[in-house]
Structure formats: C-alpha cells, structure tokens
From TrEMBL:
Protein name: Cytosine deaminase
Gene Ontology biological process terms in this record: cytosine catabolic process
Domain Amidohydrolase: 223-428
GO molecular function, one term: isoguanine deaminase activity
InterPro entries: Amidohydro_3 (IPR013108), Metal-dep_hydrolase_composite (IPR011059), Metal_Hydrolase (IPR032466), Metallo-hydrolase_Enzymes (IPR052349)
Organism lineage string: Bacteria, Pseudomonadati, Pseudomonadota, Alphaproteobacteria, Acetobacterales
Species of provenance: Roseicella aerolata
Keyword Hydrolase: yes
Amino acid sequence: MSAAMDRLRAAIAAGGGAYWLRDARAPAALLAGVGPGPTDAQGLVRFDLKVEQGRIAAIAPLGTAPEGPSLDGGQVWPGPVDCHTHLDKGQIWPRRANPSGDFAGALAAAAADRETWTEEDIEVRFEFSLRAAHAHGAVAIRTHLESVAPHDPVSWRVFRRLRDRWAGRITLQASSIAPLECFQGEDGEMLADMVAESGGVLGMVCRLSGGLQDPLPDAFQPMLDRFFSLAEARGLELDLHVDESGETGARALREVAATALRRGFRHRIQCGHCCSLSLQPEAFARETIRLCAEAGIGIIVLPMCNMYLQDRVPGRTPRWRGVTLVHELRAAGVAVSVASDNARDPFYAYGDLDMLEVYREATRILHLDHPVGDWPRAASATPAAAMGLPDTGWLKPGAAADLLLFRARGMTELLSRPQSDRIVLRSGKVLEAELPDWRELDAVLGTGPG
C-alpha cells in the first residue's frame, strides 16, 4: 500500500465513530439524488462525505467539512455487488483443468469434477471465494448452485450454512442451475421446493438451436411453461442462463420474454449471458430486446468469462468478443449488470471475485466509456436492485458506509491499475481482511500450484 493510503487508513482508524472524509470524488451516477457539486468532463463530482454510526450521514459540497482525513481528490465508491457467480464449483482448475478452453471442454470437466464433490470440499472452496470477494470489498453476491440432483442437494446445504455464517459481511443469495428438462415431473417439484425452502431464486439453463425461422421443438414451450408455473406457485424470482453460445439460432431469450409477457409473470427475472443476441440479424435482435424491455427482464453480462470461452478454435484468432448487445439493451430501457461468473474453474481459468476488475475489463471489452455515463451502476446499484437490495450500491445519506476508497482521481487513473492499495470500509471502519493464500486450497484440491 502506498504511503498516502497508509496515512489515510491510519487517520480513518483514529477518527472513531464519526468523521468527515474530505475532498472525495465519485461518479455522479452513483450519487442518489441531486449531486453536491458540478459534474466534470469524466462524469465525476467532488464533495465531502460524513460517516456517523456506521452510515453515510451527509454528502456535502467540497469545503464543507471542518476537519477530517482528506482523500486528496481520490475516488470513493459504494461496495460493489456481484450478481452472477458459481461459488460451489469455483477454484477447481488446479485439479480439473479444461485443456481445450472451450465451452464443451468446460462442461465435460465440470461434470467430471462434480462427481467427486463432498460437503467439506465445496465448503472450503466456497468460503475461500467469499473471503477473496470480501477483501476486495463486495457487499452482496448471488451464486448459482449445481442442482441436477435434487435428492442430494449438497451445494444447497453448504450455501445455507455459509449464508448464515457470513450474514453481516456479505449478503448471499443462491439460484439453482440445471437444464430446463430437470424441472419436469417429481424432480422438478422437489427442486423448486428446495429452492423455496432455502429462500433462493429459481434458475435453469435454456438454449434453442436451429434456424431463427424454424418451428420451436414440440417439447420446448410446455417445458418452459412448466418452469414458470413452478416459480409462480411458490412466489419465486427467476435467474436464467440463456443462449450462452455463438449459434445465431439460439433464440431462447426471445421465448423467455414472450412467455413472461403472456403469463403476466410478476416477479423479477434476470437472464445471464445472452451471447447469441449479438450475432443475430438486426431486426430479430431489436424485437428480442423490445420484448425483454416490455417484460422487465434484467440482463447480466459476464464479459471476462464469455470472452474466454466463446469463439475459441485451436490455432485460430477469435472473431468476436462473445458478449451481448449491452448498449442496445440499455438504450431500450433494459437494466444491464456486469458480474464475475466463474472463477478458476473449467469455464474460466482466472478471476478472483473482484468487481473492480470486472468493471475495468467490462469497460474495455464493451466500450463502457466516452462517455462513462451511468455504467458504474452496472457493478453496484443495478445488480443490487436485481437482488432486491434497493438501498445498496449507492452513495447517499442513510446508506451503510460500506465503501471503497481509491487514490485514483480520474477514470483513467482508476481503470489503468488494479487499485491493489484500495481501502475497504465496512460500517465506516477500515476492513482488515486479507486475500486468502492459494496454498490454503492445496489440501482439499490434492494439488499444488494452479
């Protein structure tokens, strides 16, 4: 950590339960309500911020604070929200690599590894990822849990323990992940009941192949309606993996939106990936986006994982970025979030549950800049709202003082370095958590370096 950040850390620690942070900057998009000052050319506002009793007590014009540590123009952000992860399969790369690096290889490797899982194995890896996310500053996470065997919901048992253990540090939610066909018959009822009893979100994997003009497979719409009916009967929200491929005929997103509209589905729906949308004809894509907007569906883009997996052919440079039409979706009024997705497993060999890294890479991959606009919300307030946490992800009086403090002033300073010297505040106090050492996983993985 730099000397300046060391001094800031010490000054905050000495400030007690009430103190001012002077001369801070933040994206205007993260300030709820009217900003305390003018917005500069980078979309940033400069101000003083008061912390009292673990909450933001005031956001005032620059120069208001009579005393207190100064950020020297450095940025302050609300704690980020990671709304699409896979914590039960995370960190397995050292023992179950994906040599091909493609989607088929990931599916095969993950399925093989799942056969070896025990509660202890899942819990050690799951908590390791939570510790990493916590040290990076995350305040809320939604994880998808392997749910293909409702008779032995081992991942859900681990989730319930860790959700309770981590309460007050990270708000943890879970969604099921299983193929659409798993929700038929008694197994579907059992799975939906388990999700409801765990306070979870009903999720599945849905992808249609073939041509855009081909008739739907006979079984598809009945299975999709069955899935919706299970959620409706239990009052569950939906979180779907949709069209995660480079197939132009993968059009499940459109059918999900149309089904939600036809049924008048009243709960939140999130759809992740939606990669195929960016390869489809403009007219078809626009119609799909219109239906998503009308149905109130939120879209979660996973830029690092999908850029890694999609269009991977040995010896050939990828021809597309593997991500969906974020700008077109946003222009139509669709809420768009960015998230980590997988971390060090066969679907993505890298990642450390750091939402600043996700936002930094998303800016580059998806061109979320010039202007930055309100894209910072995609890593904070937008996913928080998708998780039913409307007061999270904002800088506003009354919100918890769960903050990230950066030495960086402008956006290029923020996004050009990993910001490893960031200060994480929890309830206004400096968080002393450290990133866990990879060596802690050696025993459970039965391996060495990954």
